[in-house]
């Protein structure tokens, strides 16, 4: 693993995509102390306060790898493992597909972007501070009373965990999805899913499909398989 740190950049994901185009090898991590144009899923802005983690890495896809989108689960279980060393694991929950909640509030964001046969994974974690007035619960490790770890040390642990789970992912999805479901909200949890262009669907969490898609049990008993959408715990 190799690490690069910059004081300020627009987006570590954008920078990593450029580095990927220049031939950067898998295992490289880029961390910024601050971002000026951080991005979340669906094009949302990602507020980048000082003292938090803003980092990106890349995975070069190989023949026989699982679906690239499932790298979101690799990042999620790796992040959950590392945060569990700082916070009480019993108050941490993974929410489909890759949100990590602390005490029911959003702690982190994970963004996957693909360019040719490279997937760039950006990870933002609220260590010292968190955004306000987002219309949903958001927190940081410091706000929750666990203190703010040094972002560089936190990233070193995260990179190690990610490498181990990436190796497991390349052997198949079963172990990754089993770990994710063991750390997620239990089956039967009421969910509200906002689907792009299709409005809100409500139902109960019925587990994951073989490729990591969300299974939602509707009121009439039928199951809907969801591959993309915003999920909220009800």
Fold and architecture overview:
The protein has 234 residues and is α+β, with helices and mostly antiparallel strands. It has four helices and 13 strands. Strands 1-2-3-8-7 form a five-stranded mixed beta sheet, sandwiched between helices. Helix 2 (71-83) crosses helix 4 (174-183). The chain is globular. It starts with a strand and ends with a strand. The mean pLDDT is 92.
Strand arrangement within the widest β-sheet reads: 1-2-3-8-7
Largest sheet, in brief, is: 5 strands, mixed
Strand content: 25-35%
Number of helices: 4
Shape, principal axes of CA atoms? globular
Please provide the count of β strands. 13
User: Pairing-aware structural class of the strands and helices?
Assistant: alpha+beta
Helix content: 10-25%
The pLDDT mean sits at 92
Q: What is Rg?
A: 17 Å
Q: What's the SSE pattern? A: EHEEHEEEEEHHEEEEE
Q: Low-confidence stretches at least 5 residues in length (pLDDT < 50)?
A: none
Whole-Å distance between the termini? 40 Å
Keywords:
about 20% helix, globular, five-stranded mixed β-sheet, about 230 residues, alpha+beta, five-stranded antiparallel β-sheet
What's the short story on this structure?
The chain has 234 residues and is α+β, with helices and mostly antiparallel strands. The chain is built from four helices and 13 strands.
